[in-house]
Amino acid sequence: MTPLRAQRLTAFSWLEHGFGTRADGAWTPVDQTAKLHQIHTSEVVTIAGPGHHGDGDALITGQAGVWLEIRTADCVPLLIADPVQGVIAAVHAGWRGTALAIASATVAELRRQFRCRPRDLEVAIGPCIASCCFEVGEEVATRFVGHITHSDPRPHVDLVAANRQQLLSTGIPTDHIESLDLCTACGRAMFHSFRRDRSDGRMVSAIRIR
Ligand SMILES: [Zn+2]
Questions:
Q1: Which structural domains are found in the chain, ordered by start?
Q2: Dihedral sign, CA of 109, 6, 204, 133?
Q3: Is the pLDDT of residue 157 over 90?
Q4: Sequence-separated (6 or more) residues with CB below 8 Å from residue 149
Q5: Averaged confidence pLDDT in the chain
C-alpha cells in the first residue's frame, strides 16, 4: 500500500502529501516529521522544524522538507496548501475540534501569519467516519444542527460537511475543497476505526513542501 492522495494537491510539484491507510503505518521519516500531542482542541501550532511540538491539533509551516503529521482513526484529517505563499497546514478535526471550528482557526492563522488569501487555499479531506456510521447522542447532535443527515433511530452527523462549511465561510472556493469521501468505519480492511474497533490504531496523514 501507499498512502492515498488527493487529486488537487497532487497537481502541485512543490508538494508531497498522503493519507495513510492501516497498512502504511508511520510512513514519514521520524527525523523529518513534526507532530503534536493531539487533544481535541482548536489549538494551532506554527513550526519551523521536525520534532514533537507539544499540545495542539493543527500544524502550520512555510519550511521546506518538514512533514506535518496528523494521526486519526475516524476523526477528520485535513491537509491545506497555499500555492501562492508556499505555506502548508495539517489539521486533526474530530467532532470536538470540528465543534470548536479548528478548520476556521487554521485558516485564520494562515491569514494572520502568512498573509494567505482564502481564495488561494487548496484543501484535501481524508478518510474519516462518515454520516453512514457516525451515530451520536443528542448532546453531540445539538452542536451540529444543519449537518444531521438522518435521525432514525438516532442522529447521524456529517463531519465532512461541517468542516466544508467552515472552509467555505472563510472564502475558500468550493472547487478548491476535495474530499476523498471514504468512511473509516465502513472500510474494515483498509482503515483503523476507533468507533468500530476500540483500538489504539491510528493512521498517519501528512504533507510537506519539497
Ligand atoms: Zn460508514
A1: 7-130+159-209 (3.60.140.10)
A2: positive
A3: yes
A4: 131, 156, 157, 158
A5: 96
Q: What is the mean pLDDT of residues 27-41?
A: 97
Q: Assign 1 a pLDDT band (cuts: 50, 70, 90).
A: low
**Which are the contacts of 20, defined by CB distance < 8 A and separation ≥ 6?**
3, 4, 26, 27, 203, 204, 205, 206
CA distance 55 to 199: 22
Q: How far apart are CA 92 and CA 169, in angstroms?
A: 19
Cell of 45: 501550532
Percent of the chain's residues with pLDDT above 90: 92
User: SS3 for 121?
Assistant: coil
Question: What average pLDDT does the segment 133-158 reach?
Answer: 95
Distance of CA 210 from the midpoint of ligand 1 (Å): 34
CA of 128 to the centre of ligand 1 (A): 9
- Can you point out the beta strands (E) in the chain? 15-19, 33-37, 44-46, 51-55, 58-61, 67-72, 76-82, 87-93, 122-125, 148-150, 156-157, 177-179, 203-209
Which amino acid, one-letter code, is at 16?
Answer: E
Between the CA of 185 and the centroid of ligand 1 the distance, in Å, is: 5
The pTM for the full model equals: 0.97
Per-residue confidence (pLDDT) for residue 103, from 0 to 100: 98
Residue that the C-alpha cell 470540528 belongs to:
98
Residues with CB under 5 A from ligand 1 (ion): 130, 132-133, 183, 185-186
Cα separation values, 32 from 2, 28, 45, Å:
18, 7, 17
